[in-house]
Design brief:
Elements (H helix, E strand, L loop, with lengths): L2 H28 L11 H34 L17 H6 L11
C-alpha cells in the first residue's frame, strides 16, 4: 500500500475512532435504567424499555466497532495492513475508507 493511501486511511481511522467514542459516550448517557417507581404509565414504560433495548444494541455495536478500529490503528504500520486475511489480496482503498476495520476483501467477506 502506498504511503499516501496510508495517510488517508490513518486520518479516516482517527476520525472514526473519535466519532465512535463520542457515540459511545452519548449512548451511555442516554442508557439509564428505567425506575419502576416512576409513574409514567404502562405504554410509556414499555416504550422506554424498548428504547433501552435499542440503545443497548447500539452501544454494544459501537463498542465492537471501536475495538476493531483501535486494532486496525495498531496494525496500520505493518506490512500486512490492507491485505485480506483470507486470500492475501490487497483490499481496495475504497473499502478501507468505507469500513476501516475491514480485515477481508469484498469477495472473502
Amino acid at each position: 500500500m502506498k504511503k499516501k493511501e496510508l495517510i488517508v486511511i490513518k486520518k479516516k481511522i482517527e476520525s472514526e475512532i473519535e466519532k465512535t467514542s463520542n457515540s459511545i459516550l452519548e449512548y451511555k448517557k442516554l442508557n439509564r435504567p428505567i425506575s419502576p417507581d416512576n409513574a409514567i404509565g404502562r405504554v410509556s414504560r414499555m416504550d422506554a424499555i424498548n428504547n433501552k433495548s435499542v440503545l443497548d444494541a447500539a452501544l454494544k455495536k459501537a463498542e465492537i466497532k471501536l475495538q476493531g478500529l483501535k486494532m486496525v490503528e495498531q496494525k496500520l504500520e505493518t506490512k500486512d495492513f490492507g491485505a485480506c486475511i483470507r486470500c492475501k489480496k490487497e483490499i481496495p482503498l475504497e473499502r478501507l475508507l468505507l469500513v476501516p476495520e475491514s480485515h477481508k476483501c469484498v469477495n472473502c467477506a
